[in-house]
Each structure stands twice: as structure tokens, then as C-alpha cells.
Amino acid sequence: MKLVERVLRVPLLAKLAGANILIVLAALVGVAIERRVSFSSNVVPILGIALAASLVVNLVLVYVALRPLSDLERTATHLAAGDMEARVPDSILADRDMARVGTMLNDLLDRLTEDRARERRLAAQVISAQDEERARVARELHDSTAQILTAVMLQLGAAAHESTSPALDARIVTLRELASEALEEVRSLSHTMHPRVLDDLGLAPALEWLARQTQAQEPLDVQVVAAEFDPPIPAPPAAALYRVAQEALRNAARHAQASHVDVSLRRDGRSAVLEIVDDGRGFDVERAEARRPGMGLFSMRERVGLVNGRLTVSSAPGRGTQIVAIVPLTN
Ligand SMILES: Nc1ncnc2c1ncn2[C@@H]1O[C@H](COP(=O)(O)OP(=O)(O)OP(=O)(O)O)[C@@H](O)[C@H]1O
Ligand SMILES: [Mg+2]
Question: pTM, whole model, 2 decimals?
Fold first, then answer.
């Protein structure tokens, strides 16, 4: 078996030369025998057979040796269709140099897959570190800064009570209004960084809150149609969908010059589907993702990928933008 394998592994050129030498030798032996046996020189049929045998052997050897080319082509087609698991199959009959190309391609693909996995792990770490930091700052703002501002308002209320001067009263009223505004801003900032309503009430109310907030800050009309889920969407996919909606609304406000955005959340079998559609100016998605001017689209994709979901961004200049995130509710 070892010998057969070694013979099959010799380069195509050596195989062809070897096979042809064998055929020529066999023909010469045949001619010599023919001469001895019949004393005639009827060698034409023997040479004809030898030539035909040579042709067949050459054709078979070239066909078998070049077969890996179609394996390479098939693998490339699978890769182009997005199947990154595709590999060139190992063939004992393949020409050595051709087989080397296949092995090299497989090695490259393995390295690429490894790099992609590393990049995804890194992105997951960055996203979760970012989330933790945001949650910490949000807690701090809510529990500490907002509490201090509430205390300031109470003190100002007491001071207004004790004051006997109308001029001081007017000042205190202004101060209370400013403190109240600051309190509102701190609460809103804390909420934007980490929406507690998502933890406490679930995704649908959180999306409605987000829509109200966006409408208050931007010249955008946002409509939300969100189904209630029973049991509720688990926290990781709910957080991923919330962040997708947040980024999509931010992009609609910043880049799209949109006037209307529809946000819908529905169940589809065992998945939750979030769709955000704006009527803005649209953009070339492929170009934007290749240029990657910001982190928004990339981190949307990563977040949804991390909970085993799929994100589709459909848009074209002058056509508005549709973003669909589908996440499985069970793993
Ligand atoms: N809804 C949209 N309408 C029109 N253009 C958009 C829309 N969403 C994204 N884009 C385009 O795609 C680009 C990439 O968006 P992405 O969210 O990744 O980055 P960004 O918004 O520029 O920065 P970041 O999100 O990091 O603050 C944007 O710069 C913008 O040109
Ligand atoms: Mg963005």
C-alpha cells in the first residue's frame, strides 16, 4: 500500500514519462518476440496497440491528476456562497503540486477562521465591558448624582419656606427650576446609558420609552408596535434588540434626514423579530460596512450575532432604510 501511495504521489510529469517508457519497452519486447516466433516483421499491429495504449494512459493520468482542480473550484463556490467551513478534500490520486495548492488553501482558511473567531471573542469582550461600564455609570448617576439633586431641591424648598424676602424667593424658585431640569437630564442620561425599564418591565415598554425620548429630542415621528411576550424575552436577546433599536433610531436621526420611523416587535415561531424602517435618504450598505466610518452597524451585527441572531440591513440611496433583527428565544 505504501508503495502504491508513493507511486501515486510522484509528480504528473514523472508519471507520464514512466508510463510511456513502460509502454515503449513493452512494445519493443513485443516486436522482438514477434520477430523470433514468426520470423516475419509484422510489427505494425504491435506499434498500433502501443500507441493506442499510450494515448489512453496519458489521457487517464492527466484526467485523474487534474481532478483536484474541480475540487478547488467547488470549494471556492461554497466559500463564495458564505460557507466558511468548506475545505478542499484530500485526494490520493491528485498530482502532488496540485494537492499542495489545496492544502495551502485549507491552511489559509483555517487561519482565517481562527482569526475571525478571535476577532469575535474580542468584540464580545469589548461590548460586554462597554455595557458593564455604562451600567455602572448609569447606577452612579441614578443613585448618587440624582439623590444629591433631590436633596438640593428639598433644601431649596425649606429655604423658600423660611425666606422673608420676595427677591430671595424669586431666586429660590429659579434655582429649584434649574435643579429640577438638571435632575431630569441626569435621569434621562442614566436611562439612555442603561435602561432600567428594560430590566424591570421588559422590551416593549423600553422601546416605547425610547421612541418618546427620541421624539422629544429629534424632529422625528416614531411609531412603535410592540407585542408583549409571554414568557418575556430573556435578558440577553432583549438587551441586544434594545441596542439595535437605539442605534437604528440614532442613525435615522443623524444620517437619514428621515421624518418617520416605524419600529415593530413581533414573535415569529420561536424567534423575536425587531424591524426598524425609516423614510430617509438611504445609503449604500455594502460600501458603508466596508468603509466602516463608525461602530454602529458593526456593533449591531455583533450584538445580534452574540445571541445567535441575524441582522439584515437593507437600504439604497433615495429609498429609506430597513433593519431587521431576528433572535431565537430558545437556544
Ligand atoms: N438610517 C440611515 N440612513 C442613511 N444613512 C445611514 C443610516 N444608517 C447608517 N447610515 C450610513 O452608514 C454609516 C455607518 O453607520 P454607523 O452607525 O456604523 O456609523 P456612524 O453612525 O457614522 O458612527 P457611530 O454609530 O459609531 O456613532 C453612517 O456614517 C451613514 O453614512
Ligand atoms: Mg451610528
Answer: 0.67
Q: What CATH number does the domain located at 195-331 have?
A: 3.30.565.10
Q: What is the best residue among 255, 262, 275, 285 to mutate for testing ligand 1's pocket, by most ligand atoms within 8 Å of CB?
A: 255
Residues 250, 74: Cα–Cα separation, whole Å: 43
Cα of 292 from ligand 1 centre, angstroms: 9
Q: How far apart are CA 273 and CA 175, in angstroms?
A: 46
The ligand placed nearest to the CA atom of residue 299 is 1
Q: Is the CB of residue 321 below 6 angstroms from any atom belonging to ligand 1?
A: yes
Closest approach atom of ligand 1 to CA 299? 18
CA distance 110 to 86: 10
CA dihedral 231, 236, 242, 244 (to 10 degrees): -130
Mean pLDDT by 10 residues, the chain (331 residues): 75 80 83 72 74 82 80 90 88 78 92 90 84 87 91 92 89 94 91 83 92 93 93 90 95 95 95 97 93 88 91 95 95 54
